[in-house]
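ingest -> validate -> predict -> emit
validate: passed (alphabet ok, no gaps, 85 aa)
predict: started
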Amino acid sequence: MTKRQITFTKQAAKMLLKMPANNARLIRSKIDQLATDPASLANNVTELKGSEYSRLRVGDWRVIFTMNMMVLAIINIGPRGGIYD
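emit:
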């Protein structure tokens, strides 16, 4: 099993730096797990309706992403209430 390359938009990287360290560490570990084995997080991943993006649920945080065979692109990270605006 090969690990996908992980890319972050400027907005997503900025949010990771601004959030509390323990939340950022947990989110980074879940992103890494998703890049390595997407099936392990299948119950926390949902495709967004009307969009080509999917979301990963990590507690009260949401990670919006796209994924293909080679790249996992992190589009945005935010709290569950305001991330979909």
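The helical segments are 10-18, 21-36.
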